Amino acid sequence: MNKVFFLFLLVPLLGFSNYWGKTGHRVTGHIAQNHLSGKAKRALNDLLDGHSLAFVSTYADEIKADRSNSKFSPWHYVNYPLDMRYEDSEKSEFGDVVMAIEECIRVVKNKNSERENRVFHLKMLVHLVGDLHQPMHASRAEDKGGNDIQLQWFGEGTNLHRVWDKNLIVSYGMTYTELATELDRLPRRERKKIQEGTIYDWVHESHLLAAELYASVEPGEKIGYQYSYKYNDLLFGQLQKGGLRLAKVLNDLFA
Ligand code: ADE
Ligand code: ZN
Ligand code: ZN
Fold it and tell me: What is the pTM of this model?
């Protein structure tokens, strides 16, 4: 086989992917949709032409198919030493998920920005608040957020990053609407508690979880049922938080 063609085939198969899989993003979008203010609902309905948050939540991954969008790749994650807080870490000149969320809020909030630009940054924002809650998207540079830590998932080759983007949620076997319905049952007081804090607090929480996840596997380990049993509640909690906090960000933005 032609070498170049072979590489094109291999790269997507190895899956150096930068996303909380589609299901995760849609769960986050669907939960957020249930907690929007009237004002936010009206503004979103207009900017998204009636589409739901779940529907637009995967846009930021779809645009990666076009190479001209490669400058947005670093927007999906942030890497810094495990024993540090984001605020004290050295920032990447290419941006990171925290800077990107702040930039998106700025652009969408500014009614003088072009509509097309506001819509683009809104769709990015919906996605990136989800990514912020995937622990391996707030992790360590040396192993590219766990992408370099190879594992076996039910006998299939994967890596620590991909387990958290995709393998755990796919194995659970529920659709995004089923998951969102199950996960969106908290009483108001607990929802409000989750919505407290800043983006800096939320990224810190993900970063601490990443440290725990790094410590809990050996490179090359074979994982499956036991790992799911141990971590599904953590996964579900992060999806729930991502959804409620996305609603908070949007309600504040359109207040
Ligand atoms: N590439 C490098 N670091 C990454 C991370 N933390 N998440 C996703 N992709 C990455
Ligand atoms: Zn992403
Ligand atoms: Zn990812």
Answer: 0.92
